[in-house]
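Section: Multi-chain targets

For targets with more than one molecule, the full set of components is provided together so that the structure can be written out for the assembly as a whole rather than chain by chain. Components appear in the order listed by the source. The example entry contains two components.
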Amino acid sequence: MKIATFNINGIKARAEALPAWLRMAEPDVVVLQEIKSTDEAFPHEIFEGLGYQIETHGQKGFNGVAILSKLPLEDVTRGLPGDPEDEQARWIEAAVVGTRAVRICGLYLPNGNPAPGPKYDYKLAWMARMRTRAAELLATEDPVVMAGDYNIIPQDIDAARPEAWREDALALPDSRAAFRRIVNLGFTEAFRAREPGPGHYSFWDYQAGAWARNNGIRIDHLLLSPQAADLMTDCQIDREVRAGEKPSDHVPVWITLDA
DNA sequence: ATGGTTGCCGAGCAA
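Its structure, encoded as tokens over all components, is:
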């Protein structure tokens, strides 16, 4: 089972680039972030034509997540539990049934800038809620994959210019600690488990020639429960997608599971 | 230090 995460930065703007990547990469399941679309406006027909079932959790103009799957999706839930006042569309879950069932969470973690401030407070509170949900999922002892745009640079080796991010909500010590607290419940960060070295990124800003200079950061991650980690056979970043026509500022990251 | 870019949608905000 091939499972990918891709922050597409607007589903309408990616109506050509996303299908092109799907045809090439042929993932079984993709979690999308920043669809920037309501559920009604999502162009279902494009992806149904490629054999995908679509579940969205959209919002007008901003945020929004979705799961596309060639395999049957069951038990879909929308929204991160823990705050009924939170109206931002950043979390969706579904069970995907291959040779065995895998619970997949698609997430768009708050950016948090500027920090300090209310947006940073929201980020840390959201991460505390995510930790609670992650612990619940671990307790099921099912294979669980939590994939998405974490807006977290886990370590200095995950940035081409770590000094430029010292004061940024993506790299502040409290952000990194909150990420570690989730991982340390018992998750495996898929890419880092297979590639210990520096120089691997999943995002390059549109501004200031970041892609041309390879001034990137690694902020798109897949966290695997022990039962999922035992099934992992590969993990890659499709960096060349950033050089395509009208690209997102993020590229896909994917795993394969023996499931 | 600033400015640099893109997407949403039709003015700024978010990133």
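Residues 2-257 of chain A form a domain with the Deoxyribonuclease I; Chain A fold (CATH 3.60.10.10).
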